[in-house]
Design goal:
The protein is of the alpha+beta class. The chain has one domain. 45% of the residues lie in helices and 22% in strands. The chain is built from four helices and five strands. Strands 2-3-4 form a three-stranded antiparallel sheet. Strands 1-5 form a two-stranded antiparallel sheet. It starts with 7 loop residues before the first strand and ends with a helix.
């Protein structure tokens, strides 16, 4: 994998984004959910949330989700694998927004 992102199931990615990032889920007609991520009451990111399938996500698709979350591949892996907590994610996000 050239991107450095590990393979995860769509279900894993969805669960961790919802549990840790806690985006405001937008209701729409799309087959995929979208979520808004707020920092200091301002929308700072919009992320496509995978469906709850056991199907594995390829690194290419994960790369776009990581980009939307403003994470590098290693940080994205940590978010899904659990070393990176929700508050840790928002710390990273805060430094990237203010930089």
């Amino acid at each position: 994998m050239s991107s450095g992102i590990k393979p995860f199931s769509e279900k894993q990615v969805r669960k961790k984004i919802i549990e840790k990032v806690k985006p405001k889920i937008l209701k729409g007609r799309s087959k995929h959910s979208k979520g808004l991520i707020f920092l200091d009451d301002k929308v700072v990111a919009k992320v496509k949330i995978p469906n709850s399938h056991d199907k594995m996500m390829f690194a290419n698709k994960s790369r776009f989700i990581a980009r939307d979350l403003r994470l590098n591949p290693s940080e994205f892996n940590d978010l899904i694998d659990c070393p990176l907590s929700g508050p840790g994610y928002y710390e990273i996000l805060s430094t990237r927004i203010k930089a």
